[in-house]
Amino acid sequence: MPVRFATVPVMEPILEIQGLTKSYAGGLIALDHVDLQVRKGEIFALLGPNGAGKTTLIGSVCGMVRPTSGSIRAFGQDMRKNWREARQRIGLVPQELGLDMFDTVDRQIRFSRGLFGRPPSEERIVQILASLQLLDKRYEQLRKLSGGMKRRVLIAKALSHDPDLLFLDEPTAGVDVELRRDMWRLIGDLREHGVTIILTTHYIEEAEEMADRVGIIDNGRILLVDDKQAIMTRLGRTEARFTLENPLAAIPAALEQFHLSLQDNGSTLVYRGGDGTGKGKAEVAQIARILIQHDVTFVALDQKESSLEDIFVELMHEQEAVS
Questions:
Q1: With contact defined as beta carbons under 8 Å apart, do 195 and 225 qualify?
Q2: Which CDD domains does the annotation name (predicted)?
């Protein structure tokens, strides 16, 4: 399947990746000539199945993975030549906890702030702790915290040096509903203050709700990058299921122009079509009128529009078919 890219307005990029490749001994290619630009101030969601290359890509930008080839520029600087300066402006919330369980919340956050060259700030530490509901846990050892609270500490550490670019690698995986809600509220606040956010998530409905643009990666290759709404318009579909009063042996000739199939031994007439612009809804209405005109009675009609998750699943199925 060809890579799908859309023309987007020229805006200031905060991150530019060109030809990024990471291969390992034994032939595994984790990243395969990845090209990607992330715009300043946007929320960019990177979606893909496990093993697609999401974490490797993040690790390459954050200095934890050494790419085999390609280039990374952040804030206009070559990451190979000016890694320390650029990295001071990048925050990361990793999937794995990786915390000193005998340290306190307060010391962990202060250490992270100092590690990236930021001066001490009692006011800022309190602000971060309060925003994540950690203020009352400030002096507790991490080993005494719940899993959700430990995840909050990871987020606090990533925010401690006030990054301009923030990576969130599956930040809400396995956490409670309250933390997920707080997390997205915090993301909204950060975005309002000009922070650029790149997130990976298994909760595709969250990407659909929060992201400005979406990238889909599989087998180390970028399959699609586009504005979220443009994806929904270009790749979205309408699905309608007509439950028939009496089964049909075949689709009536008057309906052959539409994308229809019969299921459930002819008892369900299924439409899949449109293009996300409203065409599908109009065709469903037209099909209903034709059925009535030809005395084909339907007792129920269920209709839905593609979600971003539907589009993602369809793309993954296409990839499997050509693999």
A1: no
A2: ABC_DR_subfamily_A (cd03230)
| Whole-number CA gyration radius for the chain | 24
The class level of CATH for 237-305 reads: alpha beta
Distance of CA 201 to the CA centre of its chain: 5
Residue 225: HSE in the Cβ half-sphere, 13 Å Cα cutoff = 15
For residues 133 and 145, give the distance between their C-alpha atoms in angstroms, rounded to a whole number: 13
Q: Average model confidence (pLDDT) for the chain? A: 86
d(C-alpha 109, C-alpha 203), whole Å: 28
Q: Which residues of 171-193 are buried (b: 16+ CB within 10 A; e: fewer)?
A: bbeebeeebbebbeebbeebbee
Q: What is the pTM of this model?
A: 0.77
Give me the phi and psi of 254, to 5 degrees please.
-65, -15
The residues near 220 (Cβ < 8 Å, ≥ 6 apart) are 22, 29, 30, 31, 32, 34, 52, 53, 56
- pLDDT band at residue 139 using 50, 70 and 90 as cut-offs: very high
Q: How many other CB atoms are there within 10 angstroms of residue 248's CB atom?
A: 17
**Locate tokens 């993602």: which residue?**
312
List the domain boundaries for the chain: 4-233, 237-305
For 249-303, the pLDDT digits (tens) are 999 999 999 989 999 999 999 998 876 667 888 999 999 999 999 999 999 999 9
Reported residue count of the chain is 323
Q: Does domain 4-233 have CATH number 3.40.50.300?
A: yes
Say yes or no to pLDDT of 73 above 70.
Answer: yes
Q: Do residues 46 and 224 make contact, with C-beta atoms less than 8 angstroms apart?
A: no
Q: How far is CA 269 from CA 83, 247, 255, 266, 281, in A?
A: 59, 9, 11, 7, 15
